[in-house]
Design a protein that fits this description.
151 residues; mainly alpha; three-stranded parallel sheet; 6 helices; 3 strands
Length: 151
């Protein structure tokens, strides 16, 4: 969230008076996520109305188009360790991430706990996923004081 906030503030300085911009998108992966659940989280963040009649393809297309229109330049995804690529829904959801990454002109930053030992990076699909990313280990951010939280 600190990265997203810094990015958002820098973007606002570069594009003054453009309050309609959404340079950062932030979601958390829902437990037992399906591709439709995942892209619905994107839509909820954007305030897009969703109905049960919309299918995954329709939501995905609308989300990608809107993110491009709003100038989104950074996508932050938390709790990626919840994806179990050994299960069909998890594998399809990881494929959805790949597709979204190809349609949205922004880097995706994934956050996870113990991702190296999760199913996300194991097996053939996991090797393909691991080959697309660089893992950075980061210590927890210090939010112990009011001053830390203000930064």
């Amino acid at each position: 969230m600190a990265l997203g906030r810094s990015f958002q503030l820098a973007d606002a300085l570069q594009h003054p008076g453009q309050a309609e911009r959404r340079p950062v998108l932030f979601i958390s992966v829902p437990p037992a996520a399906t591709p439709k659940m995942l892209v619905s989280e994107f839509a909820r963040f954007l305030g897009m109305p969703l109905t049960d009649r919309l299918n995954q393809t329709q939501i995905t297309s609308a989300v990608c188009d809107l993110l491009c229109e709003l100038g989104t330049r950074l996508v932050l995804i938390d709790d990626v360790h919840l994806l179990d690529t050994q299960r069909r829904a998890g594998a399809e959801t990881s494929d959805q991430f790949k597709y979204l990454g190809e349609r949205i002109p922004a880097p995706f930053v994934y956050s996870a706990i113990n991702v190296e030992s999760s199913s996300l990076l194991s097996g053939v699909r996991g090797a393909q996923i691991a080959g697309r990313f660089k893992i950075f280990r980061h210590r927890p951010l210090p939010y112990a004081t009011e001053q830390d939280r203000a930064v």
